[in-house]
Amino acid sequence: MSDRKTQRRQLKKQLGEADSYRQWYATAEKLDELDGTLAWREEAGCELLHEKLLRDHIAAMIRCRKRGDTRGLTRVLQESVYRHLGEIANPDLYAVARTGTKVLVTEFLDEVERSMNFVCDHDMPGVSMEQKLRLFRDAERVYGRPALMLSGGAAFGIYHIGVTRALWEVGLLPDVIAGSSMGAIVAGAVCTRNKRELESFFTEPDEIHLNAFRWLEPERIWRRKHAMDPSHLLEHIRTNIGSISFKEAEAHSGRTLNISVSPTRTRQKPRLLNSLSSPEVLVDSAILASCAVPAIYPPVTLQARDFEKGSEGSKPYMPTERWIDGSVHGDLPLMRMARLHNVNRTIVSQANPHVLPFITHHHERGPKATLKQAAASMAHAQVATALKLSRNSAPSSVVRPLLEQAHAMTTQTYLGDINVHFPFRPLLYRKLLSNPSRADLDMFIRLGEQATWPRMAMIRDQTRISRTFSDCIARLEAAIRNQNRPE
Questions:
Q1: What per-residue string of b and e applies to 194-211 under the rule 16 or more CB within 10 Å gives b?
Q2: Where is the chain membrane-spanning (predicted)?
């Protein structure tokens, strides 16, 4: 028994010191074997799954494939995929073993992918290539697609680079990415780069400009009513991202960038800026606005591309409105993302320092974890109630807006379908509003990667059908182009 405890302790230490996902997974597999959870993955029978129905659907797909029955296979896929969608997405299925969930889920997803590719690559009687493409596009629209959402977090938000790099290295980085505050800077850096530039960004992080924060002198802080220099932050943003519109960014990178900004007026609504809602708005001005933490930076007037002044010209966008930190009202704009981009699965990277103490135990299971979650929820609810009462009774026109903002920050949703969060380490809070050193950059990136690796199996499984839709649609589009190309 003592040998097993020693071995387990050593493996957990190796898990925390892993330098790559491959190394982390190999160690996690040994731990799962030691804990008996590898056997759990292979065991038949699970109250969380309708095992017989899943196996029946797998068998039906195999029969249709072997007969070459693409029409029948399409009907089985339509029933099977949507029937089991919520079932196989249950987070409890991923709370037992570190390396993944039940082997049956993998077998089901394997067969769904094989069947979708079969329908894509084989003739369907009476259906043209164009009609088949429309069929896949309609099915994808009904099914939805994943999105990555990066929270605010000041210097903690640098860890988002590690999260995005971990996903990119295994081909799981979504095409739709949203960010607010510091998360907007990282989202902007990713979504303004093409494949070659993104590879350089992730493999050569020493090229990243780090000098974002500059404190003002005390007399200027008093006079200007904010503590940091916005021009210095804008220089940091432009050095890392450039000055490009949302429309131009999507055309260049192939990814859809979304940035949250909050209003300064109580009657104005928060905005999600992207190539659909604000195509000509400049990304650098949107990020600056999303980083404008009240009392730290002043509110920002957005800028848009002005082609009358040339390709680099700009003009104020909604010039009567000014915007502040996106985390205040919409750290994670879940509903707006779903509505605009047909998002069915949100991957949330959370680094907000005021949120971390309340979500640290979110992934844990068991009585002890339940008590911790209940205590955190009660504390959070009490803070929200106190702010609401203070806001309603505040007589001052200066204090009330600040209480409104604080209340908005405590009552919004900070978690998505799949959650990766910055580890709660109180000693790191001293680095929150300081420029990171190169050693800090490496440390934050590694923390992001290490936080992502345990969620990788869940992310891979729950985005797999969406990724297969994208692959099939791309192949069909290429086939139609080749078919219509003049000889």
A1: eeeebeebbeebeebebe
A2: 142-161
* Structure-token pair, residue 95: 């709370």
Exposed/middle/buried for residue 222 (C-beta within 10 Å: 0-12, 13-18, 19+): exposed
Are the C-beta atoms of residues 176 and 256 closer than 8 Å to each other? yes
Phi-psi region for residue 483, left (φ > 0), alpha (ψ -120 to 50) or beta?
alpha
Token reading at 189: 């850096």
Q: What is the per-residue burial (b if ≥16 Cβ within 10 Å, else e) of 296-320?
A: bbebbebbbbbeeeeeeebeebeee
Active-site residue set: 181, 325
pLDDT band at residue 410 under the 50/70/90 scheme: low
pLDDT tops 50 at residue 370: no
pLDDT at 406 over 50: no
- 322: tokens are 């000014």
Q: How far is CA 425 from CA 17, 126, 156, 353, in A?
A: 17, 61, 11, 10
Residues 14 and 33 sit within 8 Å (Cβ to Cβ): no
- Rounded CA-CA distance 346/420 in Å is 11
Compute the distance between CA of residue 388 and CA of residue 284 in angstroms, rounded to an integer: 34
- pTM exceeding the 0.90 threshold for the entire prediction: no
State whether residue 346 is helix, strand or coil.
strand
Q: What are the distances in angstroms from CA 392 to CA 36, 327, 402, 405, 408?
A: 54, 22, 12, 13, 13
The answer to whether the beta carbons of residues 355 and 186 sit under 8 Å apart is no
